[in-house]
Amino acid sequence: MLVATQSIVLNAIRYQEKGLIVSCYTRSHGIKKFFIASAFSGGKNGNKSAYFQPLTLLETQISLKNKGALEHFKEIRIGTPYSSIPFDIHKSSIALFLSEVLHYSIKENEADETLFDFLETALIWLDTHNDILNFHLIILYKITKFLGFYPNINPHQGNYFDLQNGTFSNEKNYHSLNEKESELFIKLSTLNFNENTTSLTGQDRRNLLKILMDYYGLHIENFKKPKSLDVLKEVLS
What we know:
Elements: E1 2-15, E2 19-26, E3 30-36, E4 57-63, E5 72-78, H1 89-105, H2 113-128, H3 135-147, E6 160-162, E7 167-169, H4 179-189, H5 202-219, H6 229-236
Antiparallel strand pairs: 1-2, 1-4, 2-3, 4-5, 6-7
Helix pairs in contact: 1-3, 1-6, 2-3, 3-5, 4-5
């Protein structure tokens, strides 16, 4: 079955000398994995590996078998070309980090067009704006709505946010944030991409990133700490 769909690159692993195994989040069919036999060859098709950088937006035609095996692209082209993400160390580090988080977080092989559209809009915003130091935190928070563990931010229920249950409580337990961290988490819940980044300090960002990674780890089975996490911390420090 031949399907035309938009795709977001999440992961690409080199296979032997010229091949790639690529994981994409497709608008029509959710997560799909593809085999590209000659990604690094020259010839008339050029070097296809350039299409598969983290979070690249693609327009694709896919030959789908839906048998659990690797699928194949019939046609590939860049959807919305990035003008700054590949060339800005801060933005490219954010893109690499988010691609890892999404790769470990999105499990379903079913379409969620609302999630796809949200990611596409957010990535274009990242590419076209400069005040981006809070971007990774805001998108990690907002994506939980699609992943099924969106926090219930109601501080009237207590002073401590419980990461395990996703709610506030007066009872503090092993998975509870302290009062200062809980207040910081409330602050994050109010932020949008257009907020001035001075609303959070560098230490605030580091604390929130740890909190969010712990939150994801509690709610996503087999969630792995992204290899690019330390690089992101260094670049955005």
